[in-house]
């Protein structure tokens, strides 16, 4: 596989990043994952816009323009013959001379840009067919979840708690309400209405979330953006999650309670179809 590191395309075993890189020492970095269908990028503009926002919130400079970033994405997809899968990108505050909590001067310490691809079947996934089961866990993450940082230890622990419990994922709960999944946005459906937590600093502003809600509204589906409790979720008709690499994926059980008849619901299935169709047409 060919990867990208700071201006160079290299075989993955020749790519190098300093041990003093702040991404490694402080999780001082941001990332994006853009999915690829038919060798084309899904919603690159959305991911680029969120990346610029994440960088801005952390006073970090982009090492390349967004046009250059698009070109690198396309180069990597081509070099690795990715038909279906994703492109991962990470920008960190770079490698300062020493380990220091204080941010280094950006003029002396350029940021690090790393990118790689992953080929993976996204459309024909087992999770989409059968739906996934989730457990609820406490949301103990920091308060700026709207910034897409590489600080993913708790979400990673959440996935392990789910695995231990014999299920697929975890929904995080704070002050009695569901924030989001470990790596996706969470939704419930009640009486035909789609309910998902409103945007704020408590959740990541999912690019798939924005697209799916827009498509749902355009298809005359009712959408309500507000907090919902885990009890309300367990009593819902159906539930689902969204993310760039899983699109719309039905949730069929929460904390061992089956939703509806325990199979993917009609709203989630329809939204998945619409999302894949529309995104494919608009892919770059
Ligand atoms: N919430 C969290 C915590 C995530 O990690 C992700 C995926 N990175 C999402 C939501 C979904 O965001 P997107 O649709 O942009 O992939």
UniProtKB/TrEMBL annotation:
The organism of origin for this protein: Rhodovulum euryhalinum
Pathway the protein contributes to: Amino-acid biosynthesis; L-leucine biosynthesis; L-leucine from 3-methyl-2-oxobutanoate: step 4/4; Amino-acid biosynthesis; L-isoleucine biosynthesis; L-isoleucine from 2-oxobutanoate: step 4/4; Amino-acid biosynthesis; L-valine biosynthesis; L-valine from pyruvate: step 4/4
Reactions catalysed according to its record: L-valine + 2-oxoglutarate = 3-methyl-2-oxobutanoate + L-glutamate; L-isoleucine + 2-oxoglutarate = (S)-3-methyl-2-oxopentanoate + L-glutamate; L-leucine + 2-oxoglutarate = 4-methyl-2-oxopentanoate + L-glutamate
Listed GO CC annotations: cytosol
Signal peptide: none
MF annotations from Gene Ontology: branched-chain-amino-acid transaminase activity
UniProt cofactor(s): pyridoxal 5'-phosphate
Gene3D superfamilies cross-referenced by the UniProt entry: 3.30.470.10, D-amino Acid Aminotransferase, subunit A, domain 2
Enzyme Commission number(s): 2.6.1.42
Pfam families linked to this entry: Aminotran_4 (PF01063)
Main function: Acts on leucine, isoleucine and valine.
Name of the molecule in the record: Probable branched-chain-amino-acid aminotransferase
PROSITE patterns the UniProt entry points to: AA_TRANSFER_CLASS_4
Enzyme class: transferase
């Amino acid at each position: 596989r060919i990867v990208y590191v700071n201006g160079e395309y290299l075989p993955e075993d020749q790519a190098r990043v300093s041990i003093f890189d702040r991404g490694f020492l402080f999780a001082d970095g941001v990332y994006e994952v853009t999915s690829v269908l038919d060798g084309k990028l899904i919603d690159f503009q959305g991911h680029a816009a969120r990346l610029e926002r994440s960088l801005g919130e952390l006073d970090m400079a982009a090492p390349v323009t967004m046009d250059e970033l698009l070109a690198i994405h396309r180069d990597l997809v081509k070099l690795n013959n990715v038909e279906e899968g994703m492109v991962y990108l990470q920008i960190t505050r770079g490698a300062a001379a020493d380990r220091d909590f204080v941010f280094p001067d950006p003029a002396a310490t350029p940021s690090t840009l790393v990118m790689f691809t992953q080929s993976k079947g996204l459309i024909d996934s087992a999770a989409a067919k059968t739906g996934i089961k989730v457990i609820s866990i406490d949301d103990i993450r920091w308060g700026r979840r709207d910034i897409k940082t590489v600080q993913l230890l708790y979400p990673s622990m959440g996935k392990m708690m789910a695995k231990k419990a014999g299920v697929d994922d975890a929904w995080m709960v704070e002050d009695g309400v569901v924030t989001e999944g470990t790596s996706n946005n969470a939704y419930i459906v009640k009486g035909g209405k789609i309910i998902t937590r409103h945007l704020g600093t408590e959740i990541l502003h999912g690019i798939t979330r924005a697209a799916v809600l827009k498509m749902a509204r355009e298809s005359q589906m009712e959408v309500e953006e507000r907090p919902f409790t885990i009890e309300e979720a367990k009593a819902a008709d159906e539930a689902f999650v969204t993310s760039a690499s899983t699109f719309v994926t039905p949730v069929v059980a929460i904390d061992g309670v089956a939703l509806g008849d325990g199979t993917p619901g009609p709203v989630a299935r329809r939204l998945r179809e619409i999302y894949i169709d529309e995104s494919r047409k608009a892919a770059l």
